[in-house]
């Protein structure tokens, strides 16, 4: 039946054209963003899962920053501790030289001056072994803690090591000298103990640094894995979408022609009255 009031063919053609246009818009959006699920309306469940994973990835970035910051603080302490250890070895050399009873007063005084300069250098190094406001080697220093997981319930702690001349690790005092044979002998004994203590402290700091580095590598790999997982959930297959885009563009052009043909059919009614 031909009618000027109702054009069923045109309505069907228009519905199909609108559907094609909607799909084309969606495909173009996926190509533009690179995402198959860009918002909750695309796929609510997948979007919620992806957002939760994105929150974890962002948290891992904070954990990584904490590990890096603490790791740098510990590495600074290790570098300073190694310098102190080298100074102690050199100081023992000076003390051993000053223990020689055949030295003249002037020669012994020269050894003593060198020794005291090295002794004072220990305090300078310890005072400047600071990173981001934290110094693990000074007297009374606090332990340092890094975040280890995304909710802060797990941490990694590295203990401080007092390498000052007023602590117990180095068994010298700020006034130690070697201006006599007896003092030189006593200092040699103290230095041997101090060298062993400092090396043990360096070993503990090294273990802490290694723990931080190992966990940092783990966090990096875990974050990368989660990023890949998010991509698997929400990323668009651009090769597939490109092929679909061409198909929909062709379909849209055919739809426009079909609608044009359907609209022209109502014009047949005029021929009946000629």
Q: What is the rounded Rg?
A: 39 Å
Q: What is the β-strand count?
A: 2
- N to C succession of SSEs: HHHEEHHH
Beta-strand content: under 5%
Number of helices: 6
Identify the quaternary structure here: single chain
Would you tell me the structural class of the helices and strands?
A: mainly alpha
- Approximately how much helix is present in the residues? 55-70%
Taken from the alpha-carbon principal axes, the silhouette is rod-shaped
Residue windows where pLDDT falls under 50 for at least 5 positions: none
Strand order of the largest sheet: 1-2
Largest sheet: 2 strands, antiparallel
Quick check: average pLDDT?
86
Distance between the ends: 19 Å
Describe what this molecule looks like in 3D.
The protein is mainly alpha-helical. It has helices spanning 8-33, 44-98, 105-127, 181-234, 238-265, 268-271; strands spanning 144-147, 155-158. Strands 1-2 form a two-stranded antiparallel sheet. Strand 1 (144-147) and strand 2 (155-158) form a beta hairpin. Helix 1 packs antiparallel against helix 5 (238-265) and helix 2 runs antiparallel to helix 4. The model has no long low-confidence stretch (mean pLDDT 86).
Entry summary:
The chain has 274 residues and is mostly helical.
